[in-house]
Design a protein that fits this description.
17 helices; Sulfate ABC transporter, periplasmic sulfate-binding protein; D-Maltodextrin-Binding Protein, domain 2; about 400 residues; transmembrane; five-stranded mixed β-sheet; alpha/beta; membrane
Length: about 400
């Protein structure tokens, strides 16, 4: 459903309901009139009819809400439309590793929106593990826009009734606004000789990664490991055996990707770290000295953006929320994503020499579609009692 059709359909539905109600009340008035017109032989009957007609007329006027040009009576609980205000507040809920990118992009959007609409946008921002952020929104965190680590999390918010179906078709690239691949990071000089996914399963290796139960990046990490076996000719049994060995080498599962990065770099834990390529690039920009490998067999980490329909309609912020989402696809915004390590979704920018030199090519790239989509992935790997839980149980 297109962006402009939704309010039109709601208005049409509302007007139709009122028409039905109005016709019902008119029929009641006419029925009363037919009943009483034969009883107007006395002043008392005439007065009774007058009073009945008056009461029903008042009820009809109250239910019809006057004319269609009075929106406040049509939706008495709605917040005044933000477009009429000098300042508007927008709540962005995103996964942890996008913080630096959004902090660079948001001021540019605010400036552009002020120029085009003479309105100041004030952002409230929340960052954390994608799974945790998803639950927070479902439980009542009133996000206007969600930028999450995986489409499966956005779908959970849709199933909770907060986002209308078809959200991924309302913007370019099926709703994917940023993307990355998985990277292996080692200590300077790579003292343990870690070069491939297979090396992570060796005895004596300590790996740092986040928890798939709370972190979107951790689910991507798991899929990258699994994919490395499947794409090289292995079956599910071999993939399960390999991934089980890797997770035996994980001393702790952090809450999100940023905590995994901090545990590895700031706290000195582990011999290797699996994380987003963009996190590695950001760490290098901050002066960290590290050795990173982008494996030739990898997974395309795709991050979706969506407007939370129920909340923007409640807040009266649909126009500015949709404007922000569209802005994230502009070359200006995509350039900021690229600067901070995200592979751009803009094809022209992706083919530029600057971007091509920055991001190594991946020979074999798996996708979510290869695994049947997120519903199938979650059921097979991350649901209660599924493969990840079985692997964790073996560690105890």
């Amino acid at each position: 459903m297109s962006l402009w059709q939704r309010p039109l359909k709601r208005l049409q539905a509302m007007s139709y309901d009122k028409l039905l109600l109005s016709e019902t009340l008119r029929e009641r008035i006419y029925a009363e009139h037919r009943t009483y017109r034969f009883r107007l032989n006395s002043l008392k009957s005439f007065v009774s009819l007058f009073l009945v007609g008056t009461v029903l007329s008042v009820a009809l006027a109250a239910c019809s809400g006057g004319t269609a040009s009075n929106p406040s009576t049509e939706t008495p609980n709605a917040t005044p439309v933000a477009a009429t205000k000098d300042n508007v507040e927008l709540t962005l809920v995103s996964f942890a590793v996008t913080k630096a990118a959004h902090e660079a992009i948001i001021p540019k959007f605010v400036e552009q929106w002020k120029k085009d609409h003479n309105q100041t946008v004030v952002f409230k921002q929340s960052y954390g593990g994608s799974g945790s952020q998803t639950r927070a929104v479902i439980d009542g965190l009133e996000a206007d826009v969600v930028h999450l680590a995986l489409a499966g999390d956005t779908s959970k918010i849709e199933k909770a009734g907060l986002i209308q179906p078809g959200w991924e078709k309302e913007v370019p690239n099926n709703g994917i606004v940023s993307k990355s691949v998985a990277a292996l990071v080692t200590r300077p000089g790579n003292p343990k000789g870690i070069k491939t996914w297979e090396d992570l399963s060796k005895a004596g290796i300590k790996l740092i990664t986040a928890d798939p139960k709370t972190s979107g990046v951790a689910r991507w990490n798991f899929l990258a490991l699994w994919n490395s076996v499947i794409k090289t000719g292995g079956d599910d049994a071999k993939a399960t055996e390999f991934v089980s060995k890797v997770y035996k080498n994980v001393p702790l599962l952090t809450k999100d990707a940023r905590e995994a990065t901090d545990a590895f770099f700031k706290q000195g834990q582990g011999d290797a770290l699996i994380n987003y390529e963009n996190e590695i690039i950001l760490a290098e920009q901050k002066g960290e000295k590290l050795t990173a490998i982008i494996p030739d067999v990898n997974i395309s980490i795709d991050n979706p953006i969506a407007v939370v329909d129920k909340n923007v309609d409640k807040h009266g912020t649909r126009e500015v929320a949709e404007g922000f989402v569209k802005y994230l696809y502009t070359p200006e915004a995509q350039q900021e994503f690229a600067k901070l390590g995200f592979r751009p979704v803009d094809d022209t920018l992706s083919l530029s020499k600057e971007v091509a030199d920055k991001f190594p090519k991946v020979k074999t790239l798996g996708t979510v579609a290869d695994f049947g989509g997120w519903d199938g992935i979650n059921k097979k790997f991350f649901a209660e009692g599924a493969i990840f839980d079985q692997i964790q149980a073996k560690k105890k």
